[in-house]
Design a protein that fits this description.
Elements: E1 2-6, H1 14-21, E2 26-30, H2 33-39, E3 46-49, E4 68-70, H3 79-89, E5 94-98, H4 105-113, E6 123-125, E7 129-135, E8 142-145, E9 162-167, E10 173-177, E11 194-197, E12 204-210, E13 212-218, E14 224-226
Parallel strand pairs: 1-2, 1-5, 2-3, 3-4, 5-6
Antiparallel strand pairs: 6-7, 7-13, 8-12, 8-14, 9-11, 9-13, 10-12
């Protein structure tokens, strides 16, 4: 079952939010993510958080009171973590995080750290980039780039590149085909990564053989996720 968390910070455009929330069985807004959700025409099933960054608290009246879950401001988990935990408790085994770009650097690092821990999101859609987790921690094992994956409106070929970073514990091993810089021989566990890689033909593939990886792509691109 797929679920989505919409959090605060900069987010994708309305069409992209609709794309990633369509087909979701459950949508949870984390604090000011409620504003993002409603602006995009998405009515969340739950709202979670201490509500300290919600500019207009009156928006909460649009949500049934029993579906607004308040948290103490002095808590160990972030509002986003609480929202992801709620998805997991409701049976969502595939989780999409929407928003969270820009703003404070420490908040950005905290979101990145989610991918190294229990209950990570499978996808993170920010305002410009899509972070896709592949490998043992996530619901997909690889990514296939087929003809037209980079032909979304406003996305030119000069920006149709992707980067890869190891996450979680090692060892890490990946195989690839059709890339300008192949990944098979990289020593990921010694600090290697692949920055701004691209295809050399009409298609290619990434497969995580050991460990897990984060693939950073243009948010409007349409690769195929290999389950």
């Amino acid at each position: 079952m797929r679920g989505a968390v919409i959090t605060g910070g900069r987010s994708p455009d309305r069409e992209t939010i609709a794309r990633y929330t369509s087909g979701c069985s459950l949508c949870v807004a984390a604090d000011s993510g409620l504003e993002t959700a409603l602006d995009a025409g998405v009515m969340p099933d739950f709202v979670v958080g201490d509500m300290d960054s919600l500019a207009d608290p009156s928006l909460l009246r649009r949500i049934p009171p029993e579906r607004v879950i308040y948290a103490c401001r002095d808590k160990d988990e972030t509002d986003t973590e609480l929202a992801l935990a709620l998805l997991a408790s409701k049976g969502c085994d595939e989780k999409i995080l929407i928003g969270g770009s820009g703003g404070r650097m420490d908040h950005l690092f905290a979101l990145r750290s989610l991918f190294d821990r229990e209950n990570p999101p499978d996808l993170w859609a920010g305002d410009e980039s899509l972070v896709a987790g592949i490998g043992s921690l996530f619901s997909c094992k690889g990514i296939r780039f087929e003809k037209g994956w980079d032909e979304a409106p406003g996305l030119d070929s000069d920006h149709a590149c992707f980067s890869l970073f190891p996450c979680g514990t090692g060892p890490h091993r990946m195989t690839s085909s059709g890339l300008r810089w192949p990944l098979d021989a990289l020593d990921w566990d010694s600090g290697a990564y692949s920055l701004s890689n691209r295809l050399v033909g009409s298609g290619g593939e990434l497969l995580a053989r050991e460990g897990s990886f984060l693939t950073v792509l243009p948010v409007r691109s349409e690769p195929v996720f290999v389950r």
